[in-house]
């Protein structure tokens, strides 16, 4: 099921724009704190993949910002993500796990998707394969590289408005 979903994501996304970055080999993440992305806190909604997308971000507390993501298509949950951006070794790291609608995890029990900070540039925060952009106080965009390992990846834009 997961592989079919990723194939759907790959072929349903129109166009490719380069809003995501990767660290070069041997490059380390820059120093940063949660202040760089604290504007992400709040309740956000948008549309993607034929459904409604929702993200809820907590304010910084305890060195992290917790988030949940939900995709609802035809009034049914497609999947969830749960994760955080946390301060680690004087930089930021974006970590997440995926779950089916019944909360059965996609990743193994001890496996977490990890995305290192690439750079902070004004209202954009770049992690490897993900970019968060503050468009204004009530709108954000998240750019994500989507696709299974070993397959071609495509950049998808999630536009959210404060809910």
Written description of the protein model:
This protein is mainly β and 163 residues long. The protein has one domain (2-162): Lipocalin (Beta Barrel), CATH 2.40.128. It is built from one helix and ten strands; from the N terminus they run H-E-E-E-E-E-E-E-E-E-E. The protein has a ten-stranded antiparallel barrel.
Provide key terms for this protein:
single chain, 163 residues, mainly beta, Lipocalin, ten-stranded antiparallel beta barrel, 1 helix, 10 strands, 7% helix, 51% strand
Distance between the termini: 30 Å
What is the residue-mean pLDDT, rounded to a whole number?
A: 91
Judged by helices, strands and strand pairing, the structural class is: mainly beta
CATH class wording: Mainly Beta
What spatial form do the alpha-carbon principal axes imply? globular
Largest β-sheet summary: 10 strands, antiparallel, barrel
**Proportion of beta-strand residues:** over 45%
Number of domains: 1
Helix amount, in percent? under 10%
Architecture, CATH level 2?
Beta Barrel
Using the CA coordinates, give the radius of gyration: 15 Å
Low-confidence stretches: 3-16
> According to CATH, what is the topology?
Lipocalin
Question: H/E order of the elements?
Answer: HEEEEEEEEEE
Give the total of beta strands.
10
**Number of alpha- plus pi-helical segments:** 1
């Amino acid at each position: 099921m997961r592989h079919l979903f990723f194939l759907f994501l790959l072929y349903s996304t129109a166009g490719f724009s380069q809003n995501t970055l990767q660290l070069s080999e041997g490059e380390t993440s820059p120093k940063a704190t949660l202040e760089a992305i604290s504007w992400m806190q709040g309740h956000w909604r948008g549309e993607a993949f034929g459904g409604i997308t929702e993200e809820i971000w907590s304010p910084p507390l305890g060195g992290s910002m917790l988030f949940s993501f939900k995709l609802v298509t035809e009034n049914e949950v497609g999947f969830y993500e749960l994760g955080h951006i946390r301060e680690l070794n004087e930089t930021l790291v974006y970590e997440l796990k995926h779950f089916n609608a019944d909360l059965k995890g996609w990743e193994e029990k001890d496996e977490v998707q990890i995305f290192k900070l690439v750079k902070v540039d004004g209202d954009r925060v770049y992690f490897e394969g993900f970019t968060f952009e503050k468009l204004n106080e009530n709108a954000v965009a998240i750019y994500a590289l989507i696709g299974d390992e070993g397959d071609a990846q495509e950049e998808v834009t999630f536009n959210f408005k404060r809910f």
